[in-house]
Design a protein that fits this description.
Layout lengths: L1 H24 L2 H6 L11 H24 L5 H22 L3 H24 L5
Length: 127
């Protein structure tokens, strides 16, 4: 189970890293042109960059605390925060009728829930 949780955290961290880099460094006008990025036209550039930074922090929070042995309890906390972020993403895409992206966000939410449950209950990191 420990290996499955590490793999899930690694994959979700890659998703968060990818989204975080694009939202932090790609201009929102360019993001709006991509399929599923139309929502960025409705919000400020600062908001998009803030989401990008949160996703970068999530990528770090899913891996580094446990890998370095420094506050590994932050891993499931980060997973819970990702769940909240995905709820917001599902609402945003749902309002826009982008149901394929809602489904994708549900998958990401499920992976984060698995990590949170696994690290809070099944195989918590022990000091």
């Amino acid at each position: 189970m420990n290996l499955a949780l590490w793999i899930a955290a690694g994959l979700l961290a890659l998703v968060a890293l990818s989204g975080g880099i694009s939202k932090s460094f790609v201009p929102k006008e360019k993001l709006a042109a991509f399929h599923g990025g139309g929502w960025t036209a409705d919000v400020s550039g600062g908001f998009v960059r803030t989401l990008g930074v949160l996703e970068l922090l999530a990528a770090v929070g899913l891996i580094l605390p446990a890998a370095l042995g420094v506050a590994p309890a932050l891993v499931p906390v980060t997973a819970v925060c990702w769940i909240l972020l995905m709820v917001g993403a599902m609402i945003t895409h749902g309002r826009r009728g982008e149901f394929a992206f809602v489904l994708l966000n549900v998958v990401y939410l499920a992976v984060a829930a698995f990590i949170a449950w696994g690290r809070f209950v099944l195989e918590p990191f022990t000091g």
